[in-house]
Amino acid sequence: MKTKITSNVLEDLSRRLKGDSSSVSGEGVVVVFNGSNIRLDKKLEYIKSLKQRGMMISLAFSFMAEGIIDTKRIVDYLNPYKVYKEADIFNLQDIVRENSTLIGPNITTNTLSKVALGMIDSFVPSLIWTFLYKNKKVYLDFSSVKQYLGEETQNKGILDLINGHVKTLEKMGAIEINENNFKQVYLDGVQIPIVDSDRKVEGIKKVLTEKDILSISAKSNLILPRGTILTPLAKDKSKEKNITIQFK
Prior knowledge:
By secondary structure, the protein is α/β, with parallel strands linked by helices. It has helices at 7-15, 40-52, 63-68, 71-78, 92-98, 109-117, 123-133, 156-172, 182-188, 210-214, 232-240, and strands at 2-3, 28-33, 57-61, 83-84, 99-104, 137-141, 175-177, 207-208, 221-224, 229-230, 244-247. The chain has a 6-stranded parallel β-sheet, sandwiched between helices. Strands 1-9-11 form a 3-stranded parallel β-sheet, with no helix packed on it.
């Protein structure tokens, strides 16, 4: 028997990152910046596109970001709703209350390690931790942690450490984004339609996470449109629950 995604799951999925011009309190997006400028201009273009779709965008800069990247240029380019800095570590509750989603386009090794180990003693790691703690959507680009001084390491021990921390954050609920799925995550948003057994839906791209799989009954046959992104944890959980996934 083919299973439809339950209405409450559908409503939640379609609401997240949806380009709605009527931004309401609690539905904003906060973009956090660390001290890395690796391919940052391209990522700023996608963030700009979110704002053009009517989303309420706020920016948060770490102490290192203020010293390494051109924060004034970024603020002028994106014209955010609000700008947060290191001192706003004391305003975490307000930031979380006003925003439903966090995007980290240039996460550094320092922030990755702190969040993975629970060492939340500075602004951006604390903000990411709080969003994860509250089960809010967190999208992180880890490309900066895989390069140091402009190149990738061949040191297996370091690679294992980095990959281990990335996997830890994914278990916490973070969704990895990269240049291959930027457009899908940022611009198309998270939209999972109800699919009838004889209906084929195409052209809508989205992300399915472990939390979404947890809401679906075991041994179900789930039909999704082509282009759906399944996180690694979602794949593992679907196998664990014997959920068959078909793409049409």
